[in-house]
Write a structure and sequence with these properties.
The protein has about 325 residues and is of the alpha/beta class. It is built from 11 helices and 7 strands. It binds zinc ion. Zinc ion (ZN) binds next to loops.
């Protein structure tokens, strides 16, 4: 196995759909802030985009492996019904902002496909977007246009690069779209640990759901996660793990209901990556949700997973 010098980190400038206004409820600028943080911290080799692995936008054929062709066409053509665009929370019409959000969805999805490809090659890789876990087969929802993890799994399966996968989703919201998409798929195990009273309502049924009470703090959260990992079936041997490292369980998150600290998130990511790497499971990391008005702090918080993954990459831990 060829070992690159630095952890493979995937980024595309279009992750920040710049045509979306700054005051939109979704903190779109965080993707650029995250990339800048990673460059400033030396986790990528060069400034600007040069140090990142840059995906080409996902073709329609990839998206249609996990979503209905009608929905994919509507998003790409700017003809999505207003009611569905409202459920997603983005202006997905044919105006500039809508086209930018659709293009962003294609890039972020391809980014997770590339992240998974590099994880299979190198053992671990991290996207700087992804984790659009509310998108289901028929349509998107909750700021999620295309379910990037589901698309990546179907692309890799179609190419016979994987058979099975494990999805560990620690975003504070339940991964309902992902759970629905793989509900009857014995090859794909879905785990979601989330705030019980948070969106979505009602919840879907993952293979394992851990619903946490409001205001759960670091110690209880980490103890529960540790037990969850310890109790996974001993014979489990996924071809790849997708880890949704959403930072919205943080106490300062606008949409979370939990009370984790930055250090708690760091320990959480360490627990997950340690469990996977000890078993030689390739891990593709996606960043998931994070909703804070302080974009600099949010970009830095999202970089925790890249820092933790870099430590595993360097065999420091
Ligand atoms: Zn979330």
């Amino acid at each position: 196995m060829r070992q690159a010098k630095l952890l493979p980190i995937i980024h595309h400038p279009a992750y920040d759909a710049a045509d979306l206004p700054d005051q939109h409820r979704f903190p779109m600028r965080k993707f650029r802030a995250l990339a800048e943080t990673l460059v400033a911290d030396g986790l990528v080799a060069a400034s600007g985009i040069a140090g990142f692995h840059v995906p080409a936008p996902a073709p329609e054929s990839w998206l249609a492996l996990a979503h209905s062709r009608i929905y994919v066409d509507q998003v790409l053509n700017g003809t999505l019904p207003a009611s569905v665009a409202k459920e997603i929370g983005f202006p997905l019409d044919n105006a500039a902002a809508g086209r930018a959000v659709a293009f962003r969805g294609r890039c972020a999805t391809a980014g997770t496909v590339l992240t998974a490809t590099l994880a299979l090659e190198h053992g671990i890789a991290c996207n700087t977007a992804g984790g659009s876990h509310h998108a289901r087969y028929e349509q998107g929802a909750g700021f999620c246009v295309f379910n990037d993890v589901a698309v990546a799994i179907r692309v890799l399966q179609a190419d016979h690069r994987i058979g099975s996968a494990l999805i560990i989703d620690l975003d504070v919201h339940q991964g309902d779209g992902t759970a629905l998409m793989f509900a009857n798929d014995a090859e794909i195990m879905t785990i979601s640990m989330h705030a019980e009273r948070n969106y979505p309502h009602p919840k879907a049924e993952s293979d394992i759901d851990i619903a946490l009470p409001d205001a759960t703090e670091d110690s209880d959260y980490l103890a529960r996660l540790s037990r969850l990992l310890d109790e996974l079936p001993p014979r489990l041997q996924p071809d790849i793990v997708f880890y949704n490292a959403g930072v919205d369980p943080h106490a300062e998150d606008r949409l979370g209901r939990l009370n984790l600290t930055d250090e708690g998130l760091r320990q959480r990511d360490t627990l997950v990556l340690s469990h996977c790497r000890l078993r030689n499971w390739p891990v593709a990391c996606v960043i998931g949700g994070g909703y804070s008005r302080d974009i600099t702090a949010l970009g830095r918080r999202h970089s925790i997973i890249h820092h933790v993954a870099t430590k595993f990459w360097s065999n420091v831990l």
